[in-house]
Amino acid sequence: MMLARYAETLVRHKLFTMPAVVLLGPRQVGKTTLARAIAASWPAGTVYLDLERPADRMRLDDADSYLRAQQGKLVVLDEIHRTPDVFEILRGIIDDNRQAGQRTGQFLLLGSASLDLMRQSSESLAGRVAYMDISPLDTRDVFAKDVRATGNPPLSANTLWLRGGFPDSLLASSDALSLDWRRDFIRSYLERDVPMFAPRLPAESIGRLWTMLANQQGSLLNQARLAGALGVSNPAVDRYIDLLVDLQLLRRLRPWSGNVGKRLVKTPKVYVRDSGILHGLLELETLNDVLGHPVCGLSYEGHCLENLLGAATPRYAPYFYRTHAGAEIDLVLEKGGQAVIAIEVKRSSAPRPDRGFGQACDDLGITQRYVVYPGAEQFPLRHDAQAIGLADLVALLSQS
């Protein structure tokens, strides 16, 4: 079973407007499948190189000559972080191709580590490249009309929440096989990717930290406590978290810090970004396992936030809001320097926003107030809020 990706149309649009596009995302998230789908129907023909294969890397021994020989085609370079020296060459080729009349759709670059890759590419390809984050499958991919291949069984919202959006996990034939895949994914990141991207950082300690953060999903980051439990310094914990954020496995959600005359919490929250990986770290195989675990509510909150942010960014900047007096908003979306949308997440069929949510919205002057819950109907709630299902709010944010 293969699902179409909402991002495919966006990537094609970028390629028709820019010489190069960089797709960023974790390993196994579906970047290669997406790139191959685009390459298969690219009108001018394509060349695909997987730079993890020695034979494909050898083609770039004389990268300038080889890539210039592909003029007119779309060149896909997968795992581009393995050959960082090629960025400087790409700049010269793109500039020369402009002189020859080819201004767009020249290179599609795929990589796993966003910060290093963006720094390398931005230094060489400024003004010539567009960036796109490719996240795990979300509600737009799984539940949009006509995205599933015919004859395949439908997927439920609970299945997406339980297994997460990595395709091989989501589409496994059973919950047990899905969990096995996620265990292997976690192990491979610790044994292979951490040493590759951060050879000086201890993979075992990062694995322990990852699991500790899973148990504290959506909580305020307490680096001192984490450092004490790991037996390392605060700066070391900061480096470990930076790596997991860079690999797009963790999200560090910043607190809103505008001047509202309140004492605001200034510590970020940390979420394991994919709910399936979260459940894999905690060894939760079935939906009942998740529902009976203390992380259940915050797991659902993180799952909803990732879906919502996939639809809202980069047009909106995301924050949470919390005062020391207890007023709180799970997700504040800011646009043009102004907080404009407040979102609370409640895993309840009869959601009731807290008084602190209403107070926080009043503090910020927000009139668009939503409470996401696992239902399909929309109805008004107290504090001028609106109950809404996740898929409906994702659709609304995608269009705004």
Short description:
With 400 residues, this protein is an alpha/beta fold. It folds into 2 domains: 7-133, P-loop containing nucleotide triphosphate hydrolases (Rossmann fold, 3-Layer(aba) Sandwich); 139-399, Winged helix-like DNA-binding domain superfamily/Winged helix DNA-binding domain (Arc Repressor Mutant, subunit A). It is built from 18 helices and 14 strands.
CATH class of the largest domain: Mainly Alpha
Query: What spatial order of strands do you see in the largest sheet?
Result: 9-10-11-12-14-13
Number of domains: 2
Largest sheet: 6 strands, mixed
Provide a count of the helices: 18
Beta content comes to 15-25%
Output mean pLDDT.
Answer: 91
Q: Give unreliable regions as ranges.
A: 146-152
Look up the CATH topology of the largest domain.
Arc Repressor Mutant, subunit A
- Give the N-terminus to C-terminus distance in angstroms: 31 Å
Would you count the extended β strands for me?
14
The helix fraction, in percent, is 40-55%
Radius of gyration: 22 Å
Report the structural category: alpha/beta
CATH architecture of the largest domain: Orthogonal Bundle
Protein model, in words:
By secondary structure, this protein is α/β, with parallel strands linked by helices. It folds into two domains: 7-133, Rossmann fold; 139-399, Orthogonal Bundle (Arc Repressor Mutant, subunit A). 45% of the residues lie in helices and 17% in strands. The chain has 18 helices and 14 strands. The chain has helices at residues 7-15, 31-40, 54-59, 63-68, 86-99, 114-125, 139-143, 157-163, 167-170, 175-197, 203-215, 223-230, 234-246, 275-281, 287-291, 296-312, 355-364, 390-399; strands at 20-24, 46-50, 74-78, 107-111, 129-133, 219-220, 250-253, 269-272, 317-322, 328-335, 338-345, 368-373, 379-380, 386-389. The strands form three sheets. The chain has a six-stranded mixed sheet. α17 (355-364) links the parallel β11 (338-345) and β12. The model is unreliable at 146-152 (pLDDT under 50).
